[in-house]
Design a protein that fits this description.
The protein is built from 13 helices and no strands. It is mainly alpha-helical. The protein is globular.
């Protein structure tokens, strides 16, 4: 009991670390499916499978929802589609660690905008400096980041920020996880508009079924179960701070599994973005609830 009150449950810390590690691993494995269905097709099928799992597990009752609740869930689903679709589209073009780092700027900027403490502008400034360094690395000619990929990562961050806002609305209008399965289904339908041909290719390629199931397990089952257990052992601000290490894991996994090496400028840029997220979370705990809620969506699109 004392361990929980101090936020120092080592079991909870290990659970979050494993969960945070598993998400970029799932994303790295998903890149091998892009050859068959493209980023949009893989993302659409991923969300479709996740929605089926969640519908069976949560068993929502949408016929009892009000019109306002349906509207909130629909907006929630659209933001979920953007966050996951743009994330996969980004990692198809630029390194995984860079994508995750850029995406983190979205909720960080939202937290600063909603904050009443002007000192929090320091953190968005640090994150902005990190983005400038990424641009400088690209201009040196040694890396040459795809500008479309950077745009997709930024749009994933914007979608993440919108997800935070709409998930809060859904949480106020519906109990528990009622809105999430339907939102995931809406997101899958939205992504089908751009990923339909890719989904068809994936469905008619039986040899990759095992990999798709593996990605689903690593990106959904493992992090969801571990994080729900960890939340019973750790305060939300501690949980959020640990999640801020995800860009580090993403960079390491990209290096090991995808041969995505990185130099001094990129390493410094990512550390600035990570430091900004840690600073914002530790100083005011503004991201605590939002980051916890956001994990539901990240695990759907892993």
């Amino acid at each position: 009991m004392v361990e929980r009150a101090r936020g120092m449950s080592m079991t909870g810390v290990i659970m979050v670390m494993v969960a945070t590690f598993s998400l970029p691993v799932g994303a790295a494995l998903a890149t091998s499916l892009f050859h068959y269905g493209g980023a949009w097709g893989v993302s659409a099928l991923r969300l479709g499978l996740a929605s089926v799992m969640l519908l069976l597990f949560v068993r929502p009752t949408p016929w009892r929802w009000t019109g306002a609740a349906w509207r909130n869930v629909a907006l929630f689903g659209i933001s979920l589609a953007g966050m996951n679709g743009f994330f996969y589209a980004a990692i198809e073009r630029i390194p995984l660690g860079v994508t995750v780092a850029i995406q983190f700027v979205g909720p960080l900027a939202l937290a600063v905008i909603l904050s009443t403490n002007r000192r929090d502008l320091i953190w968005i400034g640090a994150a902005g400096l990190g983005l400038i360094l990424l641009g400088l690395e690209s201009m040196t000619g040694s890396v040459g980041f795809d500008l479309v990929g950077i745009l997709f990562a930024a749009l994933a961050g914007v979608s993440w920020a919108l997800y935070i806002l709409f998930s809060a609305r859904v949480g106020r209008s519906l109990p528990g996880l009622q809105g999430l399965p339907v939102a995931a289904l809406i997101a899958a339908i939205v992504l089908l508009s751009v990923g339909f041909s890719g989904v068809v290719e994936l469905v008619f390629t039986p040899e990759i079924y095992w990999l798709m199931l593996t990605v689903a397990f690593i990106s959904t089952v493992v992090p969801t179960s571990l994080e729900l257990a960890a939340l019973r052992r750790l305060p939300r601000h501690t949980f959020s701070i640990l999640l801020s290490l995800e860009p580090v894991f993403a960079a390491l996994i990209g290096w090991v599994l995808l041969d995505q090496s990185f130099g001094i400028l990129r390493g410094l840029a990512m550390m600035l973005i990570i430091g900004a997220t840690l600073g914002m979370t530790a100083s005011a705990a503004r991201l605590s609830t939002e980051v916890v809620d956001e994990r539901r969506a990240r695990e759907l699109g892993g």
